[in-house]
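Reopening: structure tokens for the nicotinamide-adenine-dinucleotide complex, inputs below.
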Amino acid sequence: MKLTNFIDGNWQEIGEVEYTAVLNPANGEQLAEVRMSTKDDVDLAVAAAVNAQKKWALVPAPKRADYLYEIGRLMKEKKEHLAQVLTKEMGKVIEEGRGEVQEGIDMAYYMAGEGRRLFGETTPSELADKFAMSVRAPIGVVGLITPWNFPVAIATWKSFPAIVAGNTFIWKPATETPMMAYEMAKIFDEAGLPAGVANIVFGSGSEVGTALIEHQDVKVISFTGSTETGRKVAELGGRHLKKVSLEMGGKNAVIVMEDADLSLAVEGILWSAFGTAGQRCTACSRVIVHKDVKKDLEKMLLEQMENLTIGDGLDESVKIGPVINKQALEKIHSYTKVGQEEGAKLLVGGNVLNEGDLEKGYYYAPTLFTDVTPTMRIAQEEIFGPVVSLIEVSSLEEAIEVNNGVKFGLSSSIFSNDVNKIFRAQRDLDTGIVYVNAGTTGAEIHLPFGGTKGTGNGHRDSGVAALDVYTEWKSIYVDFSGKLQRAQIDTE
Ligand code: NAD
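Re-run output (same inputs, fresh job):
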């Protein structure tokens, strides 16, 4: 199968370009070939989006929302198919694949509801016979750049608020996961979305991403990916005076206090650390544990980690799938070496798995380090794999300090049964998302999603907050006095 761009409602190919193989990380099988587009493709897509946007902005928002209801319905109808494609292409286990597609469905219905809200404000004027209000106005053409680890959910967090608010978009998916974008293009088409509202251009970040950011008709760039790439996107976007929304890396921690329900904490840690093979932006990669329960927690984690079956995510009994590719495997393994050199104690894992059925895929053993100190590189840098570091602390204050002592700020969690500790923690943990008695993953789409410090630049995906990225505030004053009334002056 050859994946070509979706531009102006058509599958478009212009010029001779290269195609790159899309591989199943579970077994190395080639699934498709994807177009490595050029700046010319981006120009074509932006022209279509500019043209469509003028009409789209005039379609009443509830009518725009009807398309989202239909997109949600189609996603629901095709949920199993989409989940299967997702698992084949990206590797996460099928149950998580279904969950991710569900997140997209939830987002479609939630943002469709915004079609009848998109609330602005009405407010009294300081002058007599004058009316004041603010409304959300669409911005124009937006560029969406997404990562491979949530190939459909993140795109829905961005494209659905953009659609309902009256924008048109060009989506550049990650090179590793174009098939989900291809499936979504088919759904946009089937839902009857007018041509040019949704455009998909496949290709590399350096070529297609850069061309999108530099294009003068693209007014907003919404990016999710690594902090390293996000910085480049922000620099280039800043030079072109773009509104740039960034959702980037994480180094998320679960805090386990001495009064915690340890069995529950172990379940939360396993799900957050090893789900999606540790390749979630919210993955738990540090466990900050009170010294009184450290030994017990270590023992319980080790016992439970033995039950984590590893293999092809399409097998319903498998708990951990492969990592995305060979480079990811090498990066993760290099961190195991770093941890050992730094003096951390490797309790289990720390090796590539390549025997038997795992031979052709990219698998890494769930890995647990203990006696990690907060400044070690394995406790500071995003590894993006199934590797967890246990850090011992003596108090809640110290736990919070360790949690906050990294350059990222996406998600954190505390396990405790002490209401005072819990409330202090939710106040003082410097992350965009805080969980109490649950792991670091599990965001729901109607709340804002994003982080502080090196994780973000103040914007949020999801929730009503997402609308802030795709709308401008417009303040409107209507003077019905029939005379000149000067603000701040004719107020008596
Ligand atoms: P990445 O930064 O390598 O790539 C992300 C996207 O940016 C891809 O589409 C890529 O092609 C594109 N890109 C690469 N170079 C570019 C450039 N110079 N200009 C424009 N675009 C460019 O990230 P990844 O490996 O795909 O994803 C993993 C990262 O994403 C992790 O750091 C993870 O924490 C982060 N992430 C964050 C969130 C969040 O919401 N905070 C969610 C998911 C993933």
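The CA atoms of residues 271 and 395 lie 25 Å apart. The longest helix spans residues 94-114. Marking as resolved unless the reporter disagrees.
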